[in-house]
């Protein structure tokens, strides 16, 4: 039986159109003093956006993996606690969760910490000493941990039971089975949705602007309010986010293809 012919690769016209549009906009930024001034100001927020995204996503991955393992535990209390956490967090809009953690949970933590410090005879802290940037990172970590927990759970459960039984027959303990057999195979399944959520977090990091954190969106609001050039300013904001998200999407696609190719050998 003849092997099916591979379909020819389709030229990515959408990418060509976007790249052409972006090149034109970047030329306008370079050639137009107003655009260039706004770009110089907004570029200062790239570092904050990247910092919030990377730290929050890394924390969310750790929490999500722990929640997934708890949800698959043989202990019913852990399973139910993990499910309760996931359902509550997934059911609350991220911006509401952001505001709740920033202005309800964070002050409560400061009060609890002050009670502990006061009991030990140490100097207490003020609520303002808890940076808004840290509150924003914690909020995004909590929000995305619930979504990533479901990705990890589905990926771990997709590993064939026979693989685990074979590892057990070789005498591998639970940690060795997870590290050497289960997780590497599950990662190939989990990588696309994990990558999608990372790109989504780049966009959702713009929500931290409601706390006054100086990311790209916040600087865009301040710049537009100062020069009243909303069209030019928000063109640059949109362009910066598009550049980051599309570049990440293309990189993740290439990584996914390489992993699939390595698995097929």
Report what the structure shows:
With 265 residues, this protein is mainly α. It has one domain (38-251): MetI-like (MetI-like fold), CATH 1.10.3720. The chain has 10 helices and no strands. It has helices at residues 13-31, 33-42, 46-71, 76-90, 94-119, 132-157, 161-169, 174-204, 216-227, 230-264. It is flat. The two termini are 22 Å apart.
What is the CATH top level name? Mainly Alpha
Order of helices and strands: HHHHHHHHHH
For the termini, the CA-CA separation is 22 Å
What is the CATH homology-level superfamily? MetI-like
Overall geometry comes to flat
The profile of the biggest β sheet is: none
Strand fraction: under 5%
* Class inferred from helices and paired strands: mainly alpha
Radius of gyration from CA coordinates: 23 Å
How many β-strand stretches?
A: 0
Figure out the total of helices: 10
Q: In summary, what is this structure?
A:
The protein has 265 residues and is an all-alpha fold.
Spell out the key features of this protein.
flat, mainly alpha, 79% helix, 265 residues, MetI-like fold, 10 helices
């Amino acid at each position: 039986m003849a092997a099916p012919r591979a379909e020819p690769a389709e030229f990515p016209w959408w990418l060509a159109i976007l790249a052409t549009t972006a090149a034109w906009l970047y030329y306008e930024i370079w050639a137009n003093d107003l655009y260039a001034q706004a770009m110089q100001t907004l570029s200062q927020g790239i570092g904050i956006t990247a910092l919030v995204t990377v730290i929050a996503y890394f924390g969310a991955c750790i929490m999500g993996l722990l929640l997934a393992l708890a949800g698959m535990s043989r202990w019913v209390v852990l399973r139910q606690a993990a499910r309760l956490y996931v359902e509550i967090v997934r059911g609350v809009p991220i911006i509401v969760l952001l505001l709740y953690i920033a202005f309800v949970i964070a002050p409560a933590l400061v009060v609890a910490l002050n009670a502990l410090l006061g009991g030990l005879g140490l100097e207490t802290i003020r609520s303002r000493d808890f940076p808004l940037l840290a509150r924003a990172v914690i909020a995004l970590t909590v929000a995305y941990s619930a979504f990533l927990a479901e990705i990890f759970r589905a990926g771990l459960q997709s590993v064939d039971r026979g693989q685990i039984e074979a590892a057990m027959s070789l005498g591998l303990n639970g940690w060795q089975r997870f590290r050497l057999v289960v997780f590497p195979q599950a990662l190939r399944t989990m990588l696309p949705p994990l990558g999608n959520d990372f790109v989504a977090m780049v966009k959702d990091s713009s929500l931290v602007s409601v706390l006054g954190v100086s990311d790209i969106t916040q600087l865009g609001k301040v710049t537009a309010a100062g020069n009243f050039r909303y069209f030019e300013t928000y063109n640059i904001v949109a362009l910066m986010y598009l550049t980051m998200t599309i570049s990440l999407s293309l990189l993740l696609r290439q990584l996914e293809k390489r992993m699939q190719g390595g698995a097929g050998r």
